[in-house]
Inverse folding.
């Protein structure tokens, strides 16, 4: 008999904020410290792999660098990601990035720094290498001097149910 292996289900990786509920922290694969939390989030994204899911439950995540998202990933949860200095953007999707879902997050710029080009989510595709199949939904995006969401070179981008406030521009 020949057996055809079934594909493995996509991974779901939980990343807990420093101030998350104790039960969430104990169940999490990654536990943030409140400083440079982008390192734990990036590690979870790498571990989740293709079609994986990273869950950022309620709590405060402090970022001091951008998080570059690969293709075929879902980032979800109720967590608050706060941009620290000298960061420009929170999430970056580069040329050729496809099939990304960002849902239910609170994305905030640390308002005291006045970055003139900062974005909550920056998507930078090109004519030769478009960004496609991106869904950004149910997020609260605030305090960015640039744009809540910026998209160049994108197609099939869905932005729905988001709330933008205290930003220089919105989509």
């Amino acid at each position: 008999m020949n057996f055809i292996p079934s594909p493995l289900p996509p991974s779901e990786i939980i990343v807990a904020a420093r101030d998350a509920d104790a039960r969430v922290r104990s169940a999490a694969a990654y536990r943030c410290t409140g400083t440079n939390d982008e390192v734990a989030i990036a590690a979870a994204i790498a571990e989740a792999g293709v079609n994986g899911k990273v869950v950022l439950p309620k709590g405060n995540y402090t970022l001091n660098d951008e998080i570059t998202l690969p293709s075929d990933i879902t980032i979800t949860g109720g967590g608050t990601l706060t941009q620290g200095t000298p960061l420009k953007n929170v999430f970056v999707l580069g040329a050729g990035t496809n099939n990304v879902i960002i849902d239910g997050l609170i994305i905030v710029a640390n308002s005291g720094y006045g970055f003139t080009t900062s974005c909550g989510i920056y998507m930078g595709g090109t004519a030769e290498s478009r960004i496609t199949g991106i869904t950004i939904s149910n997020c609260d995006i605030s305090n960015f001097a640039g744009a809540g969401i910026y998209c160049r070179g994108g197609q099939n981008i869905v932005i729905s149910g988001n709330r933008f406030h205290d930003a220089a521009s919105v989509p």
